[in-house]
Design goal:
The protein is mainly alpha-helical. The chain contains 14 helices and 3 strands. Among the domains are: 78 residues, no CATH class; 91 residues, Serine Threonine Protein Phosphatase 5, Tetratricopeptide repeat (Alpha Horseshoe). Strands 1-2-3 form a 3-stranded antiparallel sheet.
Length: 291
């Protein structure tokens, strides 16, 4: 099982072999995501557009299907990281700070990416090896170097993705750019708002992260938090920036509808109380009884 995100929702996916009636085996991609609710009856697992009967949501579903499939395959690769294939990367991945310092003293390049495009700092950051992170930074590692693997993430983005709070703090203390972006504009804060543990969501804005940043296709930290149903993260963002708004577009309306569908009444109330909730598309469940 692996996870991946579009700009408005979090999905989980798995790949397995499926035997057809003809006896052939085909690769099957299974999507398990926020577009269905575990509290609703079985019939609620049908596609959103089929239930809502709304042309705008149908269009959104069609546009996201390709992103879901390609994103799922990419994330299966990203979450299933290849083994480190350089001595320094191996030491970083195993948290062997002293071995790393010895290799650096012998002339190892702290920014050398392996054949998969991953620098040593990424390995230490993802796995929460704070001392190894510090050893690499002291040895000249670029705290803002982006990988060339799948997403173009910095070490801090990897640490956020894995919920490594102390590693994130160490990178920030060393001067890592809290507002660094990928090519399509994803930031560490946007990644953090999808997670249940909101310590990092509260930490990043306190260290200068911009809660109003957007991706090239209109995604944002608030949008992710609402769509993922993370009430504590929505609260943290609104406390930091009371004037934060969801855009009144298809993504904003769909994320709010997802929050309603999944029974996140507190999120809906927070947004409506502050007049930050966009109007829902017709037929999208405004009158649905919340579980």
């Amino acid at each position: 099982m692996a996870c991946f995100r579009t700009s408005h929702a979090l999905f989980c996916c798995s790949i397995g072999w499926h035997r057809t009636r003809a006896g052939h085996y085909r690769l099957r991609l299974l999507i398990h995501g926020t577009l269905r609710t575990t509290q609703a009856p079985r019939r609620a697992a049908r596609p959103i557009a089929e239930r809502a009967g709304d042309e705008e949501i149908q269009s959104m579903r069609r546009r996201t299907e390709a992103a879901i499939l390609t994103g799922a395959l990419a994330a299966l690769t990203a979450c299933g990281m290849p083994d480190p294939d350089t001595p320094l990367a191996s030491a970083a991945a195993r948290g062997r700070a002293q071995d790393g310092r010895a290799l650096l003293a012998q002339g190892a390049d702290p920014n050398q990416k392996n054949r998969n495009g991953l620098p040593p700092l990424v390995w230490a950051a993802r796995l929460g090896h704070v001392e190894a992170v510090k050893a690499l930074l002291e040895g000249g590692a670029d705290q803002n170097l982006r990988d060339s693997f799948v997403n173009g993430w910095t070490a801090m983005m990897h640490a956020v993705h894995k919920g490594q709070k102390e590693t994130v703090r160490a990178l920030l203390d060393w001067g890592a750019d809290v507002n660094a972006r990928t090519d399509n504009g994803v930031s560490a804060l946007m990644l953090a708002t999808c997670e249940e543990d909101n310590h990092i969501v509260r930490m990043l804005p306190d260290r200068g992260a911009h809660p109003r940043g957007e991706t090239s296709d209109g995604g944002s930290a608030l949008l992710n938090a609402v769509a993922a149903g993370q009430t504590a993260n929505v609260k943290a963002l609104l406390e930091k920036d009371p004037d934060l708004r969801l855009k009144n577009d298809i993504k904003g309306r769909l994320s709010l509808w997802l929050a309603r569908l999944r029974g996140r009444s507190e999120i809906v109330s927070l947004l409506e109380m502050r007049d930050v909730s966009p109007s829902l598309p017709s037929g999208a469940g405004r009158d649905r009884t919340l579980p």
